[in-house]
Each structure stands twice: as C-alpha cells, then as structure tokens.
Write a structure and sequence with these properties.
heterodimer, A: about 140 residues, mainly beta, two-stranded antiparallel ribbon, 8 strands, about 0% helix, about 50% strand, globular, B: about 130 residues, alpha+beta, six-stranded mixed sheet, 3 helices, 6 strands, about 25% helix, elongated
Chain lengths: ~140, ~130
C-alpha cells in the first residue's frame, strides 16, 4: 500500500517533543548509503569488474517554509562538534503503515532563501555519521 | 475576518480613493443603479500550499475593477487601489498577509447600452496574496 507523505516529521531526541528543524517541512530527501566501487579488473577480463569498498551514509536534506518569531530562527552550524545527534524521521502519519529512518549525524548547513511571490524557505543538510536504519512502523 | 474583509478595509480606509468613489466599493458585483465611478472587488481563487504536517499558507487571487464614465476617472481610482494593496503586509482578525503583489492590469471599455449616451471605462487589476489563518 502506498504511504501518504502527510504527517511526515523529523525529531532529535524524544519523538513528539524535540523537532529537529524549525519551520514547516515541505520535503525530506534521504540520499541513502553509497559504497565506493573498487576496480579489480584483470588484464584477462572482458568486462570491468568491481568489489565494493567502504559505505557512506550520505546526507539528509530537509526543506521547510520559514516561520516568523525569534524561536523559529534556524540553528547555527557548530564547528568542531564531535558528539553525534540521533535523528528520527517518521514517514507518514500512520504508525502501522509508515516507517522510521534512524541515524546519527551532524547538521552541516542551513540555507535561507527568498524569491519574488514565494514564501521564505529554509533548507537543512545533515551528514550521516555511521550507518542509518530503516524500520517498519514508528 | 476574511481576505475579502481585509481588502475592503484597505480600500475603504484609503481617503484618496474614497474621495473619488465615495463608499461605492462593492464585493463581487456592482450594486444595481450605482453611480460612477465605483469599485468592484472579489477573490477569484484560493490555492492552499501544504507542508507535511499542516497547511502552511494560502495564495488568493484578488481582482479589482474600477468602472467610470471617463478614462481619467477610472485611472485615478485604479491608481489608488494599487497604492492601497500592492506590497501590503499586515494582519487583522487572525489573518496574516505575508505579501500582496500586483500581477496584472487590464484596461477595457463597454459600449453604451441601449438608451444610454456613454459607455463604461474600466480598469482592472489582479493581485496575488499569500496569507495564513482562516
């Protein structure tokens, strides 16, 4: 069954109490893990041959509508931070039909944008540190 | 409060406009037998912009039209309508206008109807209004 994006949220720390981003989320993109391709082609091979190397958890991009109020200003990126934060993205609003993405990572950039006849937007990028997991249900 | 009500407040509150049209500012349709010049305004469409958790804001298209016996009179009131609405940002009764932008202007002329001596000069404007609240 298809899952509606309505109700999709992102938290750090406790689910339901600590939103990971400020603003109203309009899109979330989980780029997914990628592996380095190591070329192991020998001179006798007809086709190129590869094995996979290290995995990279990738990045998570969250786009939001910015909201007014000092409490809704975007957080600053912290330099030299070596303590990962655990983030949870809950896709869909129905616990039985949605799924959860859990990862440790860092906020690496925030981008504010404005265009004529458009709402002010905020974009967050998170760097996944280590693996992320995808589990069924919340 | 509604978008209609805020647009009306902006128009009726502009003294340079009421000096030209008096209180002849009507929603949706011209009052029968109204004198000229007069202003008609209406919300022609509203589009909701969704976030994942809740509706974020709406974009309404508001149209205004000045009807007058001369082009000069129509243009004068039209100019004041633009001054009242274009780039207006504010709130009233729970509705917050994030922006109000002039997007289109059209001049027109309706020929005299049977039994009348003069036609009607019109000046229309279309505004795009982003707002929050119901």
């Amino acid at each position: 069954m298809a899952i509606s994006s309505v109700g999709t949220v992102m938290y750090e720390g406790s689910i339901g109490t600590d939103p990971a981003v400020r603003g109203k989320i309009k899109s979330i993109s989980v780029d997914g893990a990628s592996a380095t391709a190591i070329d192991v082609t020998s001179i006798s091979s007809t086709f190129k041959e590869y094995v996979t190397g290290m995995l990279d958890g990738g990045t998570i991009t969250v786009s939001c509508f910015a909201e007014s109020g000092e409490e809704n200003l975007p957080p600053l990126v912290v330099a030299g931070d070596n303590t990962v934060t655990t983030y949870r993205i809950l896709f869909g609003s129905n616990q039985n039909q949605g799924f959860k993405v859990l990862f440790d990572g860092y906020l690496t950039s925030t981008t504010l944008g404005a265009a004529v006849d458009e709402a002010v937007t905020l974009e967050y990028k998170f760097r996944v540190s280590g693996a992320f997991t995808i589990t069924d249900g919340f | 409060m509604s978008v209609h009500a805020i647009v009306y407040q902006r128009l009726i509150g502009r003294t340079a406009l009421t000096a030209l049209v008096g209180t002849r500012i009507f929603p949706d349709a011209l009052k029968q037998d109204s004198a000229y010049p007069a202003v008609v305004y209406g919300v022609s469409s509203t589009e909701a912009v969704q976030a994942t958790q809740e509706r974020s804001y709406r974009v309404a298209t508001v149209e205004t039209m000045v009807l007058a016996e001369t082009r000069l009179a129509a243009l004068g009131a039209h100019k004041e309508i633009i001054a009242a609405l274009d780039r207006f940002v504010g709130s009233s009764g729970g509705i917050v206008f994030l922006h109000c932008l002039l997007s289109n202007e059209v001049s027109g002329y309706d020929p005299p109807a049977a039994g009348t001596a003069t036609g009607t000069f019109t000046e229309s404007a279309t505004f795009s209004i982003a707002y929050t609240g119901d």
